[in-house]
Amino acid sequence: MGLQFSQREVRDLAVAWLALGIAFTLLLERQLVAALDMGGALTSLSPGTVLSTLVVSLLTVGVGFLLHEVAHKVVAVRFGQVAAFRADYRMLGFAIVGALVGFLFAAPGAVVHRGRITPKENGLIALAGPVTNILLAVVFLLPYLVVEAAGTTGFLADLATRGLQINLLLAGFNMLPFGPLDGRKIRAWSTLIWAAVAVPSILLAVGALFLL
User: Could you give a GO molecular-function term held by this entry (predicted)?
Assistant: First the structure.
């Protein structure tokens, strides 16, 4: 069974990617929110700044989410599952509304799969998402270290910092063993493997939240 994406799935991924980028931009650019509120005017915030933040958001939180979900699908298909991403449009709307008032809780959708499967295979499908975010964090780490050492500011510095931070947060959050999160499925398969990945991931996520 090859890896295929239906038109609906491509649409759901694209809408979720864009919605998360917009939500994260609203969360970061509070002057933009103020301008949207009651038709207020922008002060020192330029359209270029908003566009830059949107692009950074799409390339960090958007791509981190997108590849996280695609990784679930790739492994599920590898195990003979029928798998597809389905966006949760209600939660995407909630993410944008939440960003407007100053917080972001993103549960934009999930890969659903069906077919006969073992607990190990289910655990590996779940593990693929957080591991992908860890690998993306490694990709962003080198440019982050370079811009930090050089004291660089601007678009590239924001991209490197946000890319590292967001992917560490996505990995750590998804390793929590609760509700529909990946950590619960991984722990149901193997507590040892869950702990080996979850403990450093969660610690790194806490560090990313408070230190980056």
Answer: metallopeptidase activity
- Mean pLDDT in the chain? 90
For residue range 21-30, list pLDDT tens digits in order. 999 998 887 6
Angle between helices 63-78 and 119-150 (to 10 degrees): 150
Contacting residues for 12 by C-beta, under 8 A, at least 6 apart:
85, 86, 87, 109
Token digits for 101? 């008032």
CA-to-CA separations, 131 to 6, 64, 125, 170, in angstroms, rounded = 25, 11, 10, 10
Neighbours of 86 (CB within 10 A): 15
- Closest by Cα among 65, 71, 77, 56 to 2: 77
Positions marked catalytic: 69
| pTM: predicted TM-score of the whole model, two decimal places | 0.89
Distances (CA, A) of 208 to 95, 150, 153, 170, 178: 21, 20, 18, 11, 21
